[in-house]
Amino acid sequence: MQRKPAITLSSLDFERLESLLEKSTAAFPGREQLETELDRADVLDPKDMPPNVVTMNSTVQFTILETGKTSTLTLVYPRDMDGDSAKVSVFAPVGIALLGLAVGDEFQMPSPTGQVTVRVDSITYQPESAGELHR
């Protein structure tokens, strides 16, 4: 089994996600995985977040290593999902996997053809780096 990369969350994101999970009685496929990720995360004040870490509302470019396909997604809260294919919910498997990763981190993810390896290539927008510490 591949070791998971360390993850870092802002205290604001952590608190909002914990609150969402507490309020949500609905089960979703990645709920247990998201809870596990929150439990293992290093939590920092938003002003101390490194600019190379995926936070909520970050726009991330990543590559599926097996195919070389590059994609760009913005990680959002479920309420912000509006049908835009450039957004991914933090409740979706890829959203859960991206949360808290740093540029250069790789993770394994299931796909229709089996496991694929995904690498975080860059963060083109991160709210904390843009000075939006209380978004």
For the structure shown, list the relevant keywords.
single chain, 135 residues, alpha/beta, Chitinase A, domain 3, two-stranded parallel sheet, 7 strands
SSE order and pairing:
Layout: E1 8-10, H1 11-23, H2 31-40, E2 42-44, E3 59-64, E4 69-76, E5 87-89, H3 93-98, E6 106-111, E7 114-125
Parallel strand pairs: 1-2, 4-5
Antiparallel strand pairs: 3-4, 3-7, 6-7
Written account of the structure:
- The protein has about 140 residues and is α/β, with parallel strands linked by helices.
- The protein has one domain (about 10-125): Chitinase A, domain 3.
- It is about 20% helix and about 30% strand.
- The chain contains three helices and seven strands, in the order E-H-H-E-E-E-E-H-E-E.
- The strands form two sheets. Strands 5-4-3-7-6 form a five-stranded mixed beta sheet. Strands 1-2 form a two-stranded parallel ribbon.
- It comes from Melaminivora alkalimesophila.
- This is Regulator of nucleoside diphosphate kinase.
- Pfam families: GreA_GreB, Rnk_N.
